[in-house]
Specification:
Chain lengths: 425, 598
Amino acid sequence: MAEKGSCLDCRMGRRGLLRLGLAGAVGALLPRGLLGAAPPAGAPTARARSLIVLWMQGGPSHIDTFDPKPGAATGGPFKAITTSVPGLAFSEHLPRLAEQARHLAVIRSMTSLEGSHGRGSYYLHTGHVPTPTARHPGLGAIVSKEVGDPAFALPSFVSLGGPSVGGGFLGQDHSPFVVQSKPGKPVEFLNPPKDVDLARFDARMRLSAALDEAFARSGGVEDARAHQALFARARRMMESPLTKAFVTDEEPQAVREAYGDTDFGQRCLVARRLVEAGVRCVEVTLNGWDTHEDNFTRSRELMGALDPAFAALVRELSERSLFASTLVLCLGEFGRGPDINPREGRDHHPKAFSVALAGGGIRPGSVLGATDPEGRAVAERPVSVPELFATVATLMGIDTRKVYVAGDRPIPIVNKGKPIAELLT
Amino acid sequence: MRSLQMVVALAAAFSSPLLALAPQEIDAYFEARWKQKGLSPAPLAADGAFLRRAWLDIAGVVPPPADVIAFEADPSPGKRSHAIERLLSGDRYAAAWSARLQNLLLESEMLAKNRMLARPFDLWLTQSLAGGMPYDEMVRKLIAGQGAVHENPEVSYVAQFRESPEALTGHLAKRFLGLQIQCAQCHDHPFEKWTRKDFYGLHAFFARVKQLRVPVAGLAAVREGRPADALEMMPKLAKLPGRKDRLERRLEKFARNLPPPSLSPEAIQSLLALRKEAAGAEMRPTFLVFDAPRGEAVMPDLKAPPTDKKKPVGEPVSPRFLDGTEPEESVLGPTRREALARWMTAPENPWFARALVNRVWAILMGSGLTQPVDNIAQPDSLTHAPLLDRLATHFVQSRYDLRGLIRLIGSTSVYQRSASASSTPTAAVEFAVAATRPMEPEQLFNSLLAATGTESWLREKGGEEFEVQRARMMARFGKVFENDGDAGSEDAFHGSLSQALFLMNAPALHKAVSAGPRGTVREAIEAAFRAGKTSEGVAHLYRAAYARAPNPDEATLAASFLDGSGAASQGRPVRGRPQGWSDLMWALISSAEFLVNH
């Protein structure tokens, strides 16, 4: 069921998205007057410059990761271990993160009603439940739109290993640059084909510009302009030394090993490098958490990938004084049920789940909320998805009261959520 | 019915609704409007521009250069209509419109979770379109189909909404009826008549739909009278309450009620074979869609505290059509969905044919007669209502013949206007100037293969079937052509960074424009050699990419590039070297003019 009040095309008028011209697509699709119509109070002061999202696709079991219930009937076989924060325990399979716990904030009382992958993933990526009336931008796209620099040589939003969620009504310009190839290696198609040297490449580009000019003269002015702008952007990226951030060869072996010998781990290392290079949002996907069967074997393996990577990321960011300016957010579409099914699995459970955050102005070493002794429901300080989004947006310096206008529909960046005061320093 | 007045509003300008509509009547309608609004229409598009547009619209690909030459040389006055006719009866039509309908009917987010739905659905749509299945029949199958995805792929439409059944209700009203009722899921609509009761009344037709994931082998076992074996393979079913023998009896009965496959046995085998690579393909799942004998919909009480979404608190609702009438219990038939499908596709339904003709108009003309394409509920706010109505009655009279509708619109002179004249918003709404739009992902991919000659080369080479190779390449490179927008006329230009990098640097594309032993570039070099002048070769490349010969300025530019005297080549002499030809081809197929349909 759609969230009440999320129905956007009813509110302002019956006509849906106005037809967008080409010019609208390459620029912002929003009318300029409306775009600038943020409340005069202005955006909050940014605490974080960059955001790294660790996307746990499939929905990790909160009980088996950040919210252990040792001794409970629902607790499963894993032991709980102490962490560097007194009184805070993690699963025994997160030992390195346990050491870093003093840098983390854990919310144990997330709650949502979206229990399917498609809808849950959309909700936890955009902060809005899916509606047939608008395609909401993902968090990375919002960051790109609000704080990204269009002149920056790299894309503002990079997705490593997963499709993530695109720019929605903010347009292709803010969709993630998706890298699904082997992590740590050069990005595909970033260099001209091998028998095209620089001079030949330049000749091609000049010819391309000349053809577009001819098309502009015969009526395709806007297409030609959009096309040349896109090519210029691609070329800027190709020529930028910053693309080295995608390549990890020059990292010391000890560093590469610290992140773990997994694609996810190496992608987290790339994420750190991209943030250093100035990318505003990097999402790294760890797929496989949909453990309806063999939850314990599989969760243990997945934690084997998550633990070193997340811990190394936090440690390295803090060693490089990037910690204060980089917000790390580790989340999936929902938690998993306390009841263990006959196939040693746990099923979808949006009612209560955990999210971990670090850096970027988050109060370190904190725990917010709690579930009941069985991990079934939120017992203390429920946190909604819009509250989480408001918190992240505020730390990134994005005004959560801002309302986008797609066509003639007003769409707030955050759907009625307030930043979580307890988590902010 | 709600908007019968729309029919009454039929302009006197049109012939009787009982007669077939002629293209000239559509042209007369627009000519009168242009005159009234003081618009001067763009001239008719040149032959090449027309041919390229018709190929992209109907066949989903740019035309081969030889066709461009033959078309331009053809002196007969009816050649444009003939071209449309040929395209409609060609192989490409069904494949291209299947791709388009898939984009409209399958939601990409749903597909991401259910990859197994797409390929069978494509096969079914292609087969149905090629066989000329009337549109109403096609929609009845989509709404009421039963069976397994790989045998009766029409069920994919309903199956994709497994996780969000309410989304199905909103989707079908939008796509098949042009009505925006999705808002009424949560509140009565402030501007239109829809209430939550309307929404849930429609939703109730699907209250008995069930879906089951079963291994392909399990389904076979049920069919072959081995329900016990099937149960072994279906742990979820085995979990259902009830004794095992009762479950077995139910499975047997279920098998008797399964519809015959809509796909041929060969097509089913080829679908399964595609999945054979993975070990244990027989144990791979398929989706079964069927109707339970019981089950009612509930309209959730929005004031009740949030609960488990599977068991909402609220009042039960019974099926009710959107015009307020209710199906008689006796006509509910074997499934409720059939009653809905019949009501939706009845000739008297005021929305069904209109929604489709507006959609097809939008595909061919760049935007709907009325916009947004999926919103035709309020007669008084529709633009071009009389024409919309007349086209709709024509479509019904023609027994929902899709090809006939495309032929009719394609034969108008309004379809054949030039896109090069400068346009204004009014001129665009009045279709006085043709629209320019980015190619759809499939169009672009197919056009790159065709324009570079890669396609004919792959076909000649034999070996693996071309379609299989094409599908593999699309899977490898298709991602870079995908765009974020809603497919169809709402699309704006969506060039992504990945797409630009692909066009600039992908080795596969570079190979396709390199002067290999065959392909378009080789043909151009040979044509230039034979004629003793480069202009022949340049014209060949221009025809392959743009379906026209270069104008004198373009010819000069290309010639100076090729002989190294032009500014673009900056003194790099490439005369006689294949590289210059290859670079020209690259620039053509990565240019703005190539990437749009205009």
